[in-house]
Amino acid sequence: MKRYILAIACVAMMSSVFSISSFAGAWQKAHKGWWYKNDDASYPKSQWMWIDGNGDGISERYYFDKEGYCLLDTIAPDGNKVNANGAWTMGGKVQTKGGNTNKKSQKQCAP
């Protein structure tokens, strides 16, 4: 009987572990441009945000306007430049955070 109860407990525990979904934010394309939907369905507005869009452990920094759209190939309100993909650049180089900085991120707010 103890084995039966132990087996049921193990199955229940494994079922709960394997049924947990992993949620992450995602880039969204709209008629006005690109925006980022956080895993809680919120989105950044009038702020910078570090985003690891392709899960490589390296985040790029993007600025989102008051409507939540990623700025592209322009100067952000604080004077920092963003490239055509929306990533923050200094001296023409995309600024990154975390992970192996030799790897390039493929997923940015503009293809």
Structural domain count: 1
The total of helices stands at: 1
Biggest beta sheet summary: 4 strands, antiparallel
Overall average pLDDT: 80
Query: What's the CATH class label?
Result: Mainly Beta
User: How would you name the CATH homologous superfamily?
Assistant: Cholin Binding
In N-to-C order, the SSE pattern is HEEEEEEEEE
The class by helix and strand makeup works out as alpha+beta
Radius of gyration: 20 Å
- CATH architecture field: Ribbon
CA-based shape: elongated
Please report the distance between the alpha carbons of the first and last residues: 60 Å
Contiguous low-pLDDT stretches (5 residues minimum) are 14-23, 101-106
Strand order, biggest sheet? 5-6-7-8
- Can you give the helix content as a percent range? 10-25%
Number of DSSP E strands: 9
Question: Looking at CATH, which topology would you report?
Answer: left handed beta-beta-3-solenoid
Q: Can you give a write-up of this model?
A:
- The structure is a single chain.
- This protein has 111 residues and is α+β, with helices and mostly antiparallel strands.
- The chain has one domain: Cholin Binding (left handed beta-beta-3-solenoid, Ribbon), CATH 2.10.270.
- 15% of the residues lie in helices and 29% in strands.
- It is built from one helix and nine strands.
- The protein has one helix at 2-18; strands spanning 26-30, 33-37, 47-51, 59-64, 74-75, 81-82, 88-90, 93-94, 96-97.
- The strands form three sheets. A four-stranded antiparallel sheet has the order 5-6-7-8, with no helix packed on it. The protein has a three-stranded antiparallel sheet with strand order 3-4-9, with no helix packed on it.
- The radius of gyration is 20 Å and the shape is elongated.
- Residues 14-23 and 101-106 have low confidence and may be disordered.
